[in-house]
């Protein structure tokens, strides 16, 4: 009989350090096939947006280089996991498969594979790697999932301390398996190539993630109490690295516990609680897997969203609404694939409340354009702003984007960076009257109140 081999199936965990599945396979000692599977065929899986595809391309190149240093390489395959993985198992004679767990609807794919592979005598070993607290480990006293952040995070902090990060394997014995060519996946934009701003802003991959974390620990964390100001770099910008699992929350948590300045230490609990919001979103998505399409609070099914006016929607997407902070945010998103959190809230409120457009329309635009587009965070945050979500802002609290800008961008540092033509005739008049549209939104909300 030929020597048994192992398959490590990497998904949202594109790193070699603190990767329990990869480490377990390495420690087993058998030759390892490291698989990345582009699955656009399984029912229920949402295809990646364009900015995420750009990120994935570069992240896979970085991962392959890290694996090469350890003695292995990345095997690329495309198709439905339920077909591709069992076929690869037979092809390479694997008797064990390792992966880190997922918490979105993709977990149904994993659960079915676990059963079918085990029926064929293949061992399947899964691990926790992308969250500090797996969703089923934190429940209310009554055993229900948490729907409100504060008690969720309180319970998290009072529960068993998350594990320390695990090291990268010292070496891997790679098992040769044929790989598709990354170029054939055509993940990068070509006609036109709109990724210039993304290339200038980001370094996808594990090393880029750790450099970003170090930069934040040295310069950003001490400013984190000013995290609502988009004009300064006070937040970590780790979100796309976390989304693709180039860095784990365990590694972030571990790094910020020590070796930081007293100024930074003062902001530590706040920073970790923002990481906690990511955990909360995963918890919500796990229990409400259709969060990206269905109102979490079902009384919002009665909300009379207008049909988006194509002209207004385009003006929002392209940053031509005539509301400077909204336009600055949408242009930052288009240019860099990222937007500051405070500004995300403002543009989302403007779309759902001043333009009365269904939050799902905005969620889809973000899904396509964000490099950190995340099944849990994006859906949960859009619903949060729209008022239909878990622990959501009350619908009637409509942001005034002009006052928000005065408060959080008082010197217009952010606005002028993205809207340099602000004081010229080129800049458009507002596409909507803020006061009148706010009143309309509040009137529309009556339908939800009636449905309660
Ligand atoms: P930091 O402040 O440095 O926080 C560190 C990490 O904590 C982040 O990288 C992120 O993983 C997590 N985090 C921080 N704030 C939040 C939050 N409010 N909710 C959940 N997690 C948080 N975040 C995404 O990762 N992907 C998305 O697709 C996404 N879509 C959003 C859509 C809307 C409408 C809104 C209002 C917010 C959205 N967010 C999303 C949340 C938040 O805006 C980003 O996580 C944050 O701006 C990332 O910047 P940072 O890494 O510098 O954050």
Automatic annotation (TrEMBL):
- What is the name of the protein in this document? Deoxyribodipyrimidine photo-lyase
* Xref: Pfam families: DNA_photolyase (PF00875), FAD_binding_7 (PF03441)
What cofactor does its activity depend on? FAD
Q: Which residues bind FAD?
A: 224, 235-239, 271, 372-374
Annotated site, Electron transfer via tryptophanyl radical, chain positions: 305, 359, 382
Q: Which residues form the Photolyase/cryptochrome alpha/beta domain?
A: 4-132
Q: How is the cofactor bound?
A: Binds 1 FAD per subunit.
Record bears the keyword Flavoprotein: yes
Which GO molecular function entries does the Swiss-Prot or TrEMBL record give?
deoxyribodipyrimidine photo-lyase activity; DNA binding; FAD binding
Q: Does the keyword Flavoprotein apply?
A: yes
Family to which the UniProt record says this protein belongs: Belongs to the DNA photolyase family.
Could you tell me the keywords of this UniProt record?
Chromophore, FAD, Flavoprotein
Q: What is the lineage of its organism?
A: Bacteria, Bacillati, Actinomycetota, Actinomycetes, Micrococcales
Which GO biological process annotations does it have?
A: nucleobase-containing compound metabolic process; response to light stimulus; response to stress
């Amino acid at each position: 009989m030929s020597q048994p081999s192992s398959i490590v199936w990497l998904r949202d965990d594109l790193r070699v350090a603190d990767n329990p599945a990869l480490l377990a396979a390495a420690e087993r000692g058998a030759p390892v096939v490291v698989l990345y599977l582009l699955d656009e065929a399984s029912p229920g899986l949402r295809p990646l947006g364009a900015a995420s595809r750009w990120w994935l391309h570069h992240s896979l190149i970085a991962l392959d280089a890290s694996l090469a240093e350890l003695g292995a390489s990345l095997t690329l395959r495309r198709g439905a996991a339920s077909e591709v993985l069992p076929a690869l198992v037979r092809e390479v004679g694997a008797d064990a498969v390792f992966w880190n767990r997922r918490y979105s609807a993709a977990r149904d794919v994993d659960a079915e594979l676990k059963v079918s592979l085990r029926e064929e005598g293949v061992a399947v070993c899964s691990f926790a790697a992308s969250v500090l607290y797996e969703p089923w480990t934190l429940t209310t006293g009554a055993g229900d999932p948490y729907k409100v952040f504060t008690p969720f995070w309180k319970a998290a902090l009072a529960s068993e301390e998350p594990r320390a990060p695990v090291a990268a394997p010292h070496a891997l014995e790679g098992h040769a398996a044929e790989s598709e060519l990354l170029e054939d996946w055509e993940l990068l934009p070509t006609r036109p190539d709109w990724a210039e701003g993304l290339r200038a802003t980001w370094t996808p991959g594990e090393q880029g993630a750790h450099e970003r974390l170090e930069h934040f620990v040295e310069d950003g964390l001490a400013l984190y109490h000013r995290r609502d100001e988009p004009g300064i770099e006070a937040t970590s910008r780790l979100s796309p690295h976390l989304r693709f699992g180039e860095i784990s929350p365990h590694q972030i948590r571990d790094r910020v516990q020590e070796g930081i300045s007293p100024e930074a230490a003062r902001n530590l609990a706040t920073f970790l609680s923002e990481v906690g919001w990511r955990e909360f979103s995963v918890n919500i998505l796990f229990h409400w897997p259709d969060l990206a399409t269905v109102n979490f609070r079902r009384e919002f099914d009665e909300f009379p969203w207008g049909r988006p006016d194509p002209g207004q929607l385009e003006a929002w997407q392209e940053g031509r609404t005539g509301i400077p902070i909204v336009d600055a945010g949408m242009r930052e998103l288009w240019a860099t694939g990222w937007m500051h959190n405070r500004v995300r809230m403002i543009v989302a409120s403007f779309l759902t409340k001043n333009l009365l457009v269904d939050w799902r329309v905005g969620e889809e635009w973000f899904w396509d354009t964000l490099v950190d587009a995340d099944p849990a965070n994006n859906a949960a945050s859009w619903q949060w702003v729209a008022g239909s979500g878990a622990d959501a802002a009350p619908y009637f609290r409509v942001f005034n984007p002009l006052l928000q800008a005065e408060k959080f961008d008082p010197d217009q540092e952010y606005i002028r960076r993205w809207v340099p033509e602000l004081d010229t005739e080129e800049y458009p008049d507002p596409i909507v009257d803020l006061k009148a549209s706010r009143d309309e939104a509040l009137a529309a909300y009556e339908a939800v109140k009636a449905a309660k």
